[in-house]
Every structure is written in structure tokens, then in C-alpha cells.
Amino acid sequence: MAVTVVLAAVLSVATLGLAEKLDDTAPVIGQSKGEFATQDGFDGGIVRITHVAGDVVRVSEIEVAVSAECSGDGTEKHGRLVNLPAKSGDRPQGDNIEGDDIFDESSGSLTERGSDDTGALVTDEFRPGDVIVFRIAGGDCDLLSGDTVTVRVVHTPSNAVIIRQGLTV
Predict the structure, then answer these.
(1) Architecture of domain 29-168
(2) Ranges for the Archaeal Type IV pilin N-terminal domain (predicted)?
(3) Among 75, 80, 149, 151, which residue has the least CB neighbours within 10 Å?
(4) pLDDT of 97-124, one tens digit each?
(5) Domain locations in the chain?
(6) pTM of the predicted protein model
(7) Residue 102 in contact with residue 141, Cβ under 8 Å?
């Protein structure tokens, strides 16, 4: 009888611990695509990451980590968009940026100018068909043809990279 009670206690602790870990599983983004577009009349460029297929992800549970080769000064810079969705409406503020500040913080920098699409970083959910949009500011990180920008979308509760895109300028 005592063995049964001990065995039941061990199994319940193990099962509860496993159930807690299952709650932190990462969503699955089955397919994504990315593109880098130079800006006409502006330095820097526009990054677009499209969620093509997979789970819906709460934007408050993601961060966007960016590594960029900056030809202007020969360095690689690493910035991160955090505390999402952006509270300012359509641009990141200081509390949305960690690491190197390579992001364009002007109005409309997290949206598609001239488009009805607001950009996923200013909404509550990142769904199939949605686009993460942000701009890398020229001057902070000058990008030339052949440079590489790597974007990782990180699901913070599980610390899993759910999208990784390497983009060539």
C-alpha cells in the first residue's frame, strides 16, 4: 500500500511538471518568406517577413531579432524589437528596442506606406497572410548590395525561433 502511495505521488509530480512544459511549446510557422526592399529617396531599407502558413501567434509573445552587415562602417549590428505590439501606433519607441538601434523610428516605419496592411507588429495577432514590416535606418546601418540582414522571430514563452530569414540586399 505504501509503495502505491509513493508511486502515485511520483507519477503525479512528473505528470504535472510535464504538463507545465507543454504549455510553453512554440507555435509552428509552417512556411514564411522574407524580402528586403531598398527605399527610394531614403537610406536603409524595408524588411518584410510574411507568415505564409502555420499557427496564429500572439504578437505580445514575440520579439524580432535582427543582425545586419553594415557596409558603411564594416560592422555587424544586432538589434531587437521587444515589448510588442508597439504602443505608439505605427513606429517603435525606445522601449521597443534593445541592442543596437538600427531601426527607423519615424512615423509609419512598422507599416506599409500606401497600403491597407497595418503590419503585424502593431496588431494583437500574427496570422497566416500577415506581414511583419520594419525599416532599417540608413546612417545607423548603411546597407549596400550584397550585404546580409538576418531576421529571427522568437517566441518568448518557449524561447524558440519560429521564423528565420536570411535576406540579401
Answers:
(1) Sandwich (2.60)
(2) 2-67
(3) 75
(4) 999 988 888 877 888 655 555 788 888 9
(5) 29-168
(6) 0.80
(7) yes
